[in-house]
Write a structure and sequence with these properties.
about 35% helix, Aminopeptidase, 14-stranded mixed beta sheet, 12 helices, single chain
Length: about 375
């Protein structure tokens, strides 16, 4: 009968969409399932505010009534208008190694985006850079972390055979946590703090973080505004994002710096890796999965750096070193051994240079692809 593409219309369709990756990755030892409670919210247009300013389509591929693939298409009008672009996006694509299925899904999204006036299709890329982005192209045997794609090596190859080319890479460094903090960092940190112009805030309880959630995300909006695919948080989105992840955060690995006016001018957010706990719980937090996640968080030797930012007028003054020293101190006390820096654009030359100066190498690479679709798309 050939490949049939069906749009997700019902609750059962959405359930199939959400749980298909677990079937495809059954024998993929490095794969980390999503937290299904989050997926049920993320893909629900009534609960995820991103749907309100985007055109979207969710598709399933069937072969002889067996579901064999999925894909999501997104047109982020807010981002396109702000950056004067006409880009459609594809994301959350999953198939077995089957070029016919892959082609049918991506071609459907190309036509859909073209019919809505788009010139290009880019991806994998979700509503914003806060969602998993890029196909993994290097580091297939390295540990995967939350909010990043874990695809088979054949996925970028199948995409390239459809005429897609690199748009930009996101890279990840592995940073060893020193048993003793280098003297040069301590000197810089002490010098910056001795000026008496900033306050270093650390936390032991999640409740202590709540007054800083909106100021942190407001600063995030300011410092990330020029980063590719970044979509600013609205106030309601700040609260939703915090509510989703705060339960999983260890407050000891959130560092905040304020100035004498009590304005948040810098922050680092990291968390001990919970991937093994998510695997053990099969992506289900309740009723007992949360205990497996907390157990994994206590046993892990890896710290995942999630977000960080310094207000523009304080950049280059050493406040990042102050936070880095404090993060190292907390990590050493906790017995952690290395940091996964999470995805950052290869074009972020300043940050990348700092990691390379420390002698660190890229150990994972994710690629966002592009293809012109306003011509020669049948």
């Amino acid at each position: 009968m050939g490949i049939e593409i069906r749009e997700v219309k019902t609750k059962q369709d959405l359930k199939t969409f959400i749980h298909l990756p677990a079937k495809i990755h059954t024998d993929h030892t490095n794969w980390v399932p999503p937290i299904y409670m989050d997926d049920n919210v993320f893909f629900n247009a009534k609960k995820n505010k991103s749907f309100s300013y985007c055109d979207t389509i969710l598709l399933l591929a069937y072969n002889n009534d067996k579901c064999v693939g999925r894909i999501m298409g997104i047109i982020n009008h807010r981002y396109n208008d702000l950056h004067d672009e006409k880009d459609g996006r594809f994301c959350f694509m999953e198939t077995w190694e089957d070029q016919e299925v892959f082609d049918a899904l991506i071609s459907y999204v190309e036509k859909w985006a073209k019919n809505l006036g788009m010139d290009n299709l880019v991806g994998p890329l979700g509503f914003s850079d806060k969602d998993p982005q890029g196909f993994l192209v290097e580091g297939f045997y390295e540990p995967m972390v939350i909010s990043s794609n874990c695809n088979f090596a054949y996925m970028p190859r199948l995409l390239e055979q459809k005429g897609y080319e690199k748009k930009v890479d996101c890279i990840v460094f592995k940073v060893e946590i020193p048993k003793v903090i280098p003297e040069i960092y301590l000197k810089i940190s002490n010098r910056v703090m001795s000026h008496g112009k900033i306050n270093m805030l650390e936390f032991t309880k999640r409740s202590e973080l709540k007054p800083f959630i909106r100021p942190i995300f407001t600063l995030l909006n300011e410092t990330f505004k020029d980063i590719y695919a970044f979509a600013p948080f609205e106030v309601s989105e700040m609260d939703d994002f915090a509510n989703r992840y705060l339960i999983l955060m260890d407050p000891r690995f959130i560092k905040v710096i304020t100035n004498k006016q009590d304005e948040v001018i810098a922050f680092f957010i990291a968390m001990p890796d919970i991937s093994k706990g998510i695997v053990a719980s099969k992506g289900r937090i309740f009723p007992f999965g949360i205990f497996q996640i907390f157990r994994a968080q206590k046993k892990t030797k890896q710290l995942n750096l999630l977000l960080g930012g310094v207000r523009k007028d304080y950049q280059g003054m050493g406040v990042d070193v102050v936070m880095g020293v404090k993060m190292f101190e907390s990590a050493i006390k906790r017995g952690l051994e290395y940091i996964d820096t999470h995805l950052q654009l290869e074009t972020n030359h300043k940050m990348n240079a700092e990691f390379k100066f420390m002698g660190k190498e890229i150990y994972k690479r994710y690629r966002i692809y592009k293809k012109e679709i306003n011509h020669n798309t049948n």
